[in-house]
Amino acid sequence: MAGKFEGKIALVTGGASGMGRATAIAFAQEGAKLMIADRDRAGGELTVNTIKDAGGQASFIETDVTISKQVEAMVTRTVEIYGSLDCAFNNAGIPGRMGLKVADCSEEDWARVLAINLTGVFLCMKFEIPQMLKQGRGSIVNNASVGALVGSPGAAPYVVSKHGVAGLTKSAALEYGKRGIRINAVCPGFIHTPMLDQALQGGGMSEKQMISFEPIGRIGKAEEVAKVVVFLCSEDASFVIGLAMPVDGGQVAQ
After folding, report:
1. Residue 220 three-state SS
2. Cβ of 85: how many Cβ atoms within 10 Å?
3. In the annotation, is 158 catalytic?
4. What pTM did the predictor assign?
5. Mean pLDDT rounded to a whole number for the chain
């Protein structure tokens, strides 16, 4: 039986690990051909090889989402290799330094987090949308985080960047919904990823404390987020635009 994305082309930024890798694999399992973009070449190529070993098709392009020319080249190369761009998961992001109050946050950390998490998503859409307009169709999902929906002390740059992603998602969805492009966002809670592991090693919060924030009683899996991204990009979500969807074990329902 053919998958939901047979013959479709999907682009995943931050695809070298975590939710990006899990989503790329989930797309491939549904028949999509993948372009994996990341600054981490070794991790990105591992994702590509994982997909190929399972019988799928995938390519890698080294990309810094804060550099406009590299993002443009990412989209151009995707179309050169595969002929179109049907779906994009704009996932690349960083947490920045956690545990600092607003007045103690450095300007450098503020600028770096917003450049990657927010401007990076803007640049991706800036070049993805024109290609999708040429095709008359397309679906974009941005990775926002539960930090897009609630505040969090000690994480102002991250929270601001993710609130921005949610707002950008809603505005763009309204601009392009009538032209065949659906744009949504996912807002994951605590998810087992290398980024979460780094946070745990940093000692800012223990795993037990993270679980205490989750009404479902556990930390989420990257594959659980991936399934939601794939759903939002599929025709099963054909009437869904401008949604910032929590995938958070009930965190924001409290």
Report:
1. strand
2. 27
3. yes
4. 0.95
5. 94
